[in-house]
Amino acid sequence: MNTPMIASTLQKACQLGASAFLALFMSTAVSASHVSLPVVNASLYVVSLDDEVSKSINSSVREGSTNQSTPLVDENGDRAVVIGIQGPISKNTLISLKQALPKVKGDPIPAGLIVLLDSAGGDGMAAMEMGRLLRKANAHTFVTGQCASACILVLASGVVRAAPAYSIGIHRGRITVSDNNAKILKEVDINSNPAAKRLLENFESSLSSYFSEMGMPPDLFQAMQSHQYKGVYRLSSQEIVFYGLSGFESNYLARRAQLFEEIKGPYHMDKDELHRRTLKVASRCAEFDQQHTAFIQCYKKVLKDPYLN
To answer: How far apart are CA 139 and CA 158, in angstroms?
Structure first.
């Protein structure tokens, strides 16, 4: 299909309430994630990574519920704040996050802000903006279900981050046209559309820069690029660590380790032990992904009890 025909298709899609997307295909033909960027003659653009088989269209969940549109914010006596993100990541998720972040006060044990992730993707640009906000807030990010496509942009932002083996899915992007529910209506062949090809290249450049900003190794972006278009590549536990999606931001680890080395009692430990115990939290505490107060208590227990590790 030539460029004028693509432009006409995208313009018509927007008039029908649809949007153009740069898609990162997530698993099989029934599941996709995508990023929308400006295209010829289009007036409404969103960056989106969608999961067509998600059990719920909500982007965040409250404790004990799967049908809430705003994230649960649990605060216990230690001022820990927990935000659960489930299902597609959207601009509404970003708005909810901005509303929740002022509740974060300090950085107590186990954390000032904990983000629990179970998402097959969503809005990639929103995910990057969320990531930058979470990095400033010293978020601890944990995968409690799956985390693919745009979700890994949020995961990568954590100053502490961890995920169980094979819970993370990566792949390269593609251009699609999708409706407001992120259902893919049409794929765009970048080989016959120079404008679409430039959109993909611009997004990939932004993505590479974002990973660098978050301290991820170049290998992560290169791995995504090597798994093109259809399907999703699941990372082993060794690959999750190798690509930087499990670990600490180095400066944060140094500060945090000093706190734990100076403290007395069950939390006393050196840097290596802190690192080792913390990376067990995602797998040990995943069952409490919708019981946020219980997740905080589980996090504390994992840090205090070496026999759990």
So the answer is: 5
Residues 6+ apart with CB under 8 A from 9: 1, 177, 186
Residue 46 and residue 76 in contact, taking contact as beta carbons nearer than 8 Å: no
Integer Cα distance of 20 and 47 in angstroms: 9
- The answer to whether 124 and 204 have CB atoms below 8 angstroms apart is no
Q: How far is CA 251 from the centre of its chain?
A: 22
For the record, the structure tokens of 103 come out as 């509740």
The pTM score is 0.75
Q: What is the pLDDT of residues 32-49, one digit of tens each?
A: 233 332 222 222 223 334
How far are the Cα atoms of 127, 168, 248 from residue 218, in angstroms, in the given order? 19, 17, 17
Q: Are 161 and 167 in contact (CB under 8 A)?
A: no
User: Locate tokens 């205090």: which residue?
Assistant: 304
The angle at the Cα of 138, spanning 307 to 255, to the nearest 5 degrees, equals 65
Count Cα atoms within 13 angstroms, Cβ side, for 300.
14
Q: Which residue has the tokens 């969608």?
A: 50
pLDDT per residue as tens digits for the range 174-192: 666 654 444 456 777 778 8
Residue 58 near residue 43 (C-beta atoms within 8 A): no
CB of 89 within 8 A of CB of 121? yes
